[in-house]
Design brief:
Shape: globular
Helix content: 10-25%
Distance between the termini: 48 Å
Strand content: 15-25%
Number of strands: 13
Order of helices and strands: EEEEHEHEHHEEEEEHEEH
Largest sheet: 7 strands, mixed
């Protein structure tokens, strides 16, 4: 597996108490994944792994030696470095994709384009060559599962619509929602072959019932309460029958 040697391929920013957002700034801003490291007293948790063009585990090592990887869904911009982590969980509906990722089943084709990088990971790199190693899940994420980090408990919510196996994580005590690609600022991708608008509406309606204080999405800025519910309510209003 070849990695970029650019020293600033990743950036890390603390965006909440015990929550660090890792980005790949050379990829276009609206498409780059928010890789989220959640620090816990007993265990750290990592949500998604980006494009896989840099050594993510090495970058994280000063912050977290061996986080549990939670794969929110199986799209190309979220699963590239999955293979670097020994414990990998995903909803069963998308386990087959991460076990054998391709340009087609991760939707890198047609979304991932060379022109969307301000700097290439290495000279001559081409998006058509993107192909992460297989990373079969070592366990599953199902509705209602609880992930215990010692000082934080996160409950798995199955929220299909963007994809069939999309999940969110809910911290009831702190009222923090890790909402991945279910809710984020910008164009909502609900038109892919793995998407379904009526199902998406139901997931949005479900999240509308939660007393969310702050949400950490898979793309774009952290969403405070008003911004989060504005996106949710807007989607429901546009698409509910």
């Amino acid at each position: 597996m070849r990695y970029t040697t650019l020293p600033d391929w990743f950036t890390a920013t603390e965006v909440g108490p015990g929550v660090v957002r890792i980005n790949e700034p050379y990829y276009r801003q609206d498409y780059r994944c928010n890789i989220l490291l959640i620090k816990g007293h007993d265990r750290d948790l990592l949500i998604d792994t980006g494009l896989g063009l840099g050594n993510l585990r090495q970058f994280l090592r000063p912050m977290s030696e061996n986080p549990l990887l939670i794969c929110s869904h199986s799209h190309y911009d979220h699963i590239g470095s999955n293979f670097e982590f020994p414990e990998r969980l995903i909803h069963p509906a998308e386990a087959d994709v991460v076990a054998q990722p391709t340009q087609r089943n991760t939707f890198a084709d047609p979304v991932l384009l060379t022109k969307d990088f301000s700097t290439l990971p290495w000279p001559g790199w081409d998006a058509n060559d993107w192909s992460p190693p297989p990373a079969p899940a070592t366990g599953s994420l199902n509705e209602g599962d609880v992930l215990e980090l010692g000082d934080r408990s996160l409950r798995v919510l199955h929220t299909p619509g963007h994809s069939w196996g999309s999940i969110c994580l809910w911290d009831e005590r702190s009222r923090e929602l890790f909402c991945a690609d279910t809710v984020y600022e910008g164009e909502i991708f609900d038109f892919l072959p793995c998407s379904d608008v009526p199902t998406y509406v139901k997931s949005m309606q479900r999240l509308r019932e939660l007393p969310v204080r702050v949400a950490y999405p898979g793309h774009g800025p952290v969403l405070e309460e008003a911004a989060f519910f504005g996106i949710v309510d807007g989607y429901i209003a546009r698409n509910a029958n």
